[in-house]
Design brief:
The protein is α/β, with parallel strands linked by helices and 190 residues long. The protein has one domain (8-188): DHBP synthase, CATH 3.90.870. The chain is built from 6 helices and 10 strands; from the N terminus they run E-E-H-E-H-H-E-E-H-E-E-H-E-E-E-H. The strands form 2 sheets. A 6-stranded mixed sheet has the order 6-3-5-4-9-10, with helices on both faces. Strand 9 (161-164) and strand 10 (171-174) form a beta hairpin.
Length: 190
């Protein structure tokens, strides 16, 4: 379904997300329609592993690699320069893309099966709370998406922490599941 341009709700280590091929502009546009939001907000990606990130998105750089060593798989999103092949709307017109390797075996397996990173924006209507249950996704988005991969309840909790590693120094973009102090401690241990 994802390879054919469909929108599929998938579990991640935090909440359920909407997965499409981020290199397929029509599929990306469909995610924005499903959520009922404009294309000015970026879509985060999940990947199977660091190698998949390097192959499809690019290198992590020294700081990004160190953070990946400390926190992947897990709820840490790294902002990286976006490759030209990526659908432009994925970046929210920033030229950067957020990607992480989630600590959820099903999400990573789906990325492996699709042989690329996938989008993982929250599986909810824009402005509504995200959910950790497939049944709630069905209630709110069932008629708008192509499928739901029900792997039971996810861990829930805060969204991933987002760190911009495109510059000389890492920048905290969004506080989340991993405290900034832990990020700094990881970098100082290098």
């Amino acid at each position: 379904m994802i390879a054919a341009g469909g929108v599929v709700a998938i579990p991640t280590d935090t909440l359920y997300g909407l997965a499409v091929d981020p290199f397929n502009a029509a599929a990306v546009a469909k995610v924005f329609r499903v959520k009922g939001r404009g294309g000015d907000r970026a879509l985060p990606l999940v990947a199977a592993d660091r190698e998949q990130v390097a192959r499809w998105i690019g290198g992590l750089g020294l700081v990004g690699a160190r953070l990946a060593d400390c926190f992947w798989p897990g709820p840490l999103t790294l902002l990286l320069p976006a490759p030209e092949a990526l659908a432009a709307e994925v970046t929210g017109a920033t030229g950067r893309v957020g990607v992480r390797v989630p600590a959820h075996a099903v999400a990573r397996a789906l990325c492996r099966l699709c042989d690329r990173p996938l989008t993982a924006t929250s599986a909810n209507l824009s402005g509504q709370p995200p959910t950790d249950r497939a049944g709630e996704v069905e209630k709110s988005l069932g008629g708008r998406i192509d499928a739901i991969v029900d792997a039971g309840a996810t861990a829930g909790g805060p969204a991933s922490t987002i760190i911009d590693v495109t510059g000389r120094e890492p920048v905290l973009v969004r506080s989340g599941a991993i405290p900034w102090e832990d990020v700094r401690r990881c970098l100082m241990a290098a």
